[in-house]
Amino acid sequence: MQDLFSITGKVAVVTGGSRGIGRMIATGFLHNGVRTYITSRNIGELEACAQELSEYGDCIAIQSDLSSMEGVESFAREIRRREDRIDILVNNAGATWAAPLDDYPESGWDKVMNLNLKSLFFLTQQILPALRASGSPEDPARVINIASINGLANPGMPTYAYSSSKAAVIHLTRHLASDLAGDNINVNGIAPGFFPSKMTAGLLDQFEQKMLRRIPRGRLGQAEDIAGTAIYLSSRAAAWVVGQTLVLDGGMIASAG
Asked: I need a surface site. Which of 17, 38, 75, 143 has the fewest CB within 10 A?
């Protein structure tokens, strides 16, 4: 049983992999012997990230814009061209939009829903042949959807599309998991709390101490926290974990209310 958490030799795709939580997960995979494809819209940032992460392993950058079906299909074609088998798909790419309820724009709603929910579903669909080719009864292929604790509780911020999209991701994770388990594909999710990232930078600048008081563990999430959870869900140790979204928040949700 000493290899229960080993993921050496696997092949992973991490969307939104050039920054924040995606980069943290990709770094953890690379340190543990996983050939890792990362994608984002900003080609300069993406290539710089891949160059830095290549110090730890085989990191390949493929630029894409997953906010449109054309972008999803183009990226999936390129992945299928390069790899017959994908062991791990991490659906991490996401966006947020904040505006007062009375003024919340349709454009902001659509931007968030298209990237956070629609692209997640259709990229998983497009990558299914490579996931099916990888999975076995003993070691299924893995899909890990990055949700948020804001999909579980009112975030206290006017990020209506974001919280709605993440709640939908949690339910979609269960739905896909029940449908794909028979294909030897395990679908699970992670609902992170507050990690330092570009998306949370503005909040942390203004409210970091206030937020820390709401976290029983008394600190923000660290790279090892999210990477370790993704590694667990990708390993033999989690081969019987199906349709679950693991809350990774230092105790915020557990202590709420």
From this structure: 75
Protein fold of 11-249: Rossmann fold (3.40.50)
Query: Torsion over CA of 23, 28, 32 and 35, rounded to 10 degrees?
Result: -20
Does this model's pTM top 0.90? My answer is: yes
Check: CB of residue 188 under 8 Å from CB of residue 146. no
Q: How many CA atoms lie within 13 A of 233 on its CB side?
A: 31
The one catalytic residue in 37, 160, 162, 232 is 162
32: DSSP letter: T
3-state SS, residue 153: coil
Contact 163, 229 (CB under 8 A): no
| Rounded Cα gap, residues 25 and 31, in angstroms | 10
Cβ atoms of residues 179 and 143 within 8 Å: no
Quote the CA–CA distance of 71 and 120 in Å, as a whole number. Answer: 12
Q: Which residue shows structure tokens 């990226």? A: 75
Q: How far apart are CA 187 and CA 243, in angstroms?
A: 6
Q: Rg of the chain's alpha carbons, rounded to an integer?
A: 17
Phi, psi of 207 (to 5 degrees): -130, 20
Q: What is the pLDDT of residues 43-100, one digit of tens each?
A: 999 999 999 999 999 999 999 999 999 999 999 999 999 999 999 999 999 999 999 9
Is 162 labeled as catalytic in the residue annotation?
A: yes
- 147 vs 164: CA distance, rounded Å: 10
